[in-house]
Amino acid sequence: MNQLILDFPAAQPSFDTFLGQGNRELLQVLREQHEPFVYVWGPAGAGKSHLLQAWAAQAEAAGLSARYLDAANEPLHEMPPAGCHLALGQIDSLDADGQAELFNFCNHIRQSRQGALLIGASVPPPRLAVREDLRTRMGYCLVYEIKPLSDEEKIAALVEAARSRQIRISPDIFRYLLHHWRRDIGSLMAMLDALDRHALASHRPITLPLLKQLLQQNI
After folding, report:
1. Of the residues 120, 145, 170, which one is the last residue of a structural domain?
2. Cα–Cα–Cα angle for 99, 101, 106, nearest 5°?
3. Which Gene3D superfamilies match (predicted)?
């Protein structure tokens, strides 16, 4: 059997689909969009991109100028326009020109009181590998560490996602998945998608042997 490629179109990120109970204060701050500077950090898979995209989408839906930019994939060539709500991921990937433009944008927001900045990074501000004057500007920010989901929260989310598809899967199957697959929720949900498709294609129920077979194909 050919290897299944775990590449599925993702739903538009929103605050409603951000999982876990440990980030309620952060979600409230981002939903209200009253703070001009917010900095969120956490490891890969913590949900930074999800939050940044949800925040930018909410601002755009409210009729505001908004932009999401992943600095690892897209350079910041020029300062965003006045009043822009900029969601900037992987700030430490900015080149020298991008850091200069972001420094100017921070000053513009503070002086004009227009626009807002949401930053995502893998480390807290003092550990950022950026120019010193830009790092000091991070002192303007409310800083939140994204709290990871517990294993039980991940399992509950997977069970609920399966139930929404009218699939009954034992939590024990998801416990096995947690110990034999990537542990971030995005990868786990992608594997649930693949497992569902594989079960339908093979006309078999979703069982632990079926999961083991699929994992073996994707190692």
Report:
1. 145
2. 95
3. 1.10.8.60, P-loop containing nucleotide triphosphate hydrolases (3.40.50.300)
Q: 29-62: per-residue pLDDT in tens?
A: 999 999 999 999 998 888 899 999 999 999 999 9
Euclidean distance between CA atoms 122 and 41, whole angstroms: 5
10 CB-side CA count, 13 A: 17
Buried b (16+ CB within 10 A) or exposed e, 184-198: bbeebbbbbbbbbeb
Q: What is the pLDDT of residues 55-100, one digit of tens each?
A: 999 999 999 999 999 999 998 988 888 899 999 999 989 999 999 9
157 dihedral zone (left: phi>0; alpha: psi -120 to 50; beta): alpha
Asked if residue 6 is part of any domain, the answer here is: no
Q: Are residues 41 and 134 in the same domain?
A: yes
Total tally of structural domains belonging to the chain: 2
Asked whether the beta carbons of 91 and 62 are under 8 A apart, the reply is: no
- Is the domain of 48 the same as that of 136? yes
Both 99 and 206 in a single domain? Answer: no
Task: Kindly report the backbone phi and psi dihedral angles of residue 67, in degrees, each rounded to the nearest multiple of 5, phi listed first.
Answer: -150, 135
